[in-house]
């Protein structure tokens, strides 16, 4: 029997991992095992602890990994899988391979930084605190990446083939179309950049698909994005903060989102809408990330390309600084005058943003500005939802800074946009499984699709196995 098993992003939005087991005479009783995505859990603790558990299928028993895109909630567990003995290929589109080449080592580096900090502060219950994987382990994993172009079909085994189609989420993001199953990974904004002003990549998700089984994300299944230009409010928030002598801390995904935001900041400075204050992009790969952003500009929306044409490379802008070393990062803490700090990770669950929040959250003069999705149970979500205090590196930190969010920068389609995309399908899937959504979002989207399209929709449960090519599930 062939089946799909949901090993992550089921009941939550992170930790995407879906196992396809195709019954195969050639592989004996265990079948041919393909993992679609291999992401980190980043949400509530009960999910994050699963990062430390072995998957139900040992790493060595997995035959192939297919990666939809580079975001860590889809790719961030790959170094651990390889460290635990996975020896096969990791298939992804060329831009995804490029992005992983900086994101995964960065992730390993930051986990080492965090573990070292915990050990210095003795703030972890574990002695010594260990990184989930190291920079070196992440680098080693890169050797197993194998680029596969959009649209090209490839046979993984006699029973299973894979083909990537565009999903318009971030650079290189793809739907993995495997056999008769379509795994959406994350689905990008459907409409143009007029309606989605924060949108970065040019295309919409590929239309006219006809899968038998659809496994789709549901992050914004119960929400609608605002369609107005984020800049006026962004400028107002920054002006107000500077006026009261505060600084602005922006948790942001390190590639693409951060760069687009930097371009908008620069344009606001050039047009005199915000004062010229120092801007720090603080990430071990801040410089690499800018290079990647500029390299793939052909993939971007007209609005984004225009910004790049008009303003050139951020390396030449006055008052913009790119901190790559720990020493440079620490120096930002000394800045007593208003400044803007953009740092990752975007949900404040790891990385250098934690140090900046520790430093700046207690002062009511400062502003914490969210420009990305904050999953349930993350520190980012707690702060965004108005928590009075949060725990960072074992310390209780009071939240007195102003907190604001700009939703326009989302790279995920909202409920209406997902529905617009589904309406382009050439036939109704036999069954649709919703993953990558919090329970409320998935339930709302399930209802919407059932009512508007009459499709059979189920919400995937963690560890659930569903039979492929048959209507029953166990
Ligand atoms: Zn994503």
User: Mind describing the biggest β-sheet?
Assistant: 7 strands, mixed
Number of helices: 14
| Mean of residue pLDDT values | 90
The proportion of residues in beta strands is 15-25%
Cα end-to-end separation? 12 Å
Shape: globular
Taking Cα atoms only, what radius of gyration do you get, to the nearest Å? 22 Å
Q: Which structural class matches the secondary elements?
A: alpha/beta
Q: Count the beta strands.
A: 22
Helix % is: 25-40%
Spatial order of the strands forming the largest sheet: 6-5-4-3-2-1-22
List cofactors, ions and other ligands. zinc ion
Q: pLDDT below 50 for ≥5 consecutive residues: which ranges?
A: 470-474
Output the keywords.
single chain; 474 residues; alpha/beta; 7-stranded mixed β-sheet; 22 strands; disordered C terminus; binds zinc ion
Description:
The protein has 474 residues and is of the alpha/beta class. The protein is built from 14 helices and 22 strands. The protein has helices at residues 45-48, 72-75, 78-83, 94-121, 135-142, 231-243, 257-270, 286-295, 302-311, 326-332, 353-360, 379-384, 415-422, 439-453; strands at residues 3-6, 18-22, 32-36, 64-66, 90-92, 145-147, 153-157, 160-166, 174-178, 181-183, 213-217, 248-251, 279-282, 320-323, 340-343, 367-370, 389-392, 395-398, 402-405, 431-435, 457-459, 465-467. Strands 6-5-4-3-2-1-22 form a 7-stranded mixed β-sheet. A 7-stranded mixed β-sheet has the order 7-8-9-10-11-20-21, with helices on one face. Strands 14-13-15-12-16-19 form a 6-stranded parallel β-sheet. The longest helix has 28 residues, at 94-121.
């Amino acid at each position: 029997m062939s089946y799909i098993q949901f090993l992550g992003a089921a009941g939550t939005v992170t930790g995407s991992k879906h196992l396809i087991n195709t019954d195969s005479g050639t592989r004996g009783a265990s079948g041919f095992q393909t993992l679609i995505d291999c992401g980190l859990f980043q949400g509530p603790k009960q999910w994050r602890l699963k990062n430390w558990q072995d998957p139900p299928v040992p790493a060595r028993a997995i035959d192939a990994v297919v990666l939809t895109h580079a975001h860590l909630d889809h790719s961030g567990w790959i170094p651990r899988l390889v460290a635990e003995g996975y020896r096969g290929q990791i298939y992804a589109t060329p831009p995804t391979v490029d992005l992983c080449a900086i994101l995964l080592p960065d992730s390993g580096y930051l986990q080492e930084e965090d573990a070292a900090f915990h050990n210095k502060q003795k703030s972890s219950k574990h002695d010594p605190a260990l990184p989930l994987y190291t920079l070196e382990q992440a680098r080693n994993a890169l050797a197993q990446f194998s680029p596969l172009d959009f649209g090209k079909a490839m046979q993984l085994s006699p029973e299973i083939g894979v083909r990537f189609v565009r999903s318009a989420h971030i650079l290189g993001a793809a739907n993995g179309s495997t056999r008769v199953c379509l795994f959406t990974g994350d689905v990008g904004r459907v409409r143009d950049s007029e309606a989605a002003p924060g949108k970065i990549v040019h295309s919409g998700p590929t239309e006219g698909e006809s899968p038998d089984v659809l496994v789709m994300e549901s992050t914004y299944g119960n929400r609608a994005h605002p369609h107005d230009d984020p800049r006026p409010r962004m400028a107002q928030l920054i002006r107000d903060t500077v006026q009261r002598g505060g600084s602005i801390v922006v948790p942001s995904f390190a590639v693409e989102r951060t760069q687009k935001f930097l371009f908008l900041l620069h344009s606001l400075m050039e047009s005199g809408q915000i004062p010229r204050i120092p801007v720090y992009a603080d990430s071990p790969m801040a410089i690499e990330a800018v290079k990647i952003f500029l390299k793939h500009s052909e993939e971007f929306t007209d609005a984004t390309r225009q910004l790049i044409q008009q303003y050139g490379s951020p390396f030449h802008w006055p008052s913009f600084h790119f901190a790559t070393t720990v020493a440079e990062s620490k120096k930002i803490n000394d800045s007593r005058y208003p400044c803007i700090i953009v740092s990752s990770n975007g949900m404040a669950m790891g990385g250098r943003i934690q140090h900046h929040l520790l430093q700046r959250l207690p002062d009511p003069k400062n502003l914490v500005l969210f420009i990305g999705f904050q999953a349930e149970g993350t520190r980012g979500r707690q702060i965004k939802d108005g928590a009075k205090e949060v725990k960072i590196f074992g310390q209780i930190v009071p939240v007195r800074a102003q907190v604001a969010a700009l939703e326009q920068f989302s790279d995920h389609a909202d409920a209406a946009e997902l529905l617009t995309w589904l309406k382009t399908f050439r036939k109704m899937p036999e069954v649709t499984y919703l993953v990558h959504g919090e329970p409320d979002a998935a339930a709302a989207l399930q209802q919407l699709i059932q009512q508007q399209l009459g499709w059979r929709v189920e919400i995937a449960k963690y560890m659930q196995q569903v039979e492929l090519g048959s209507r029953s599930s166990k």
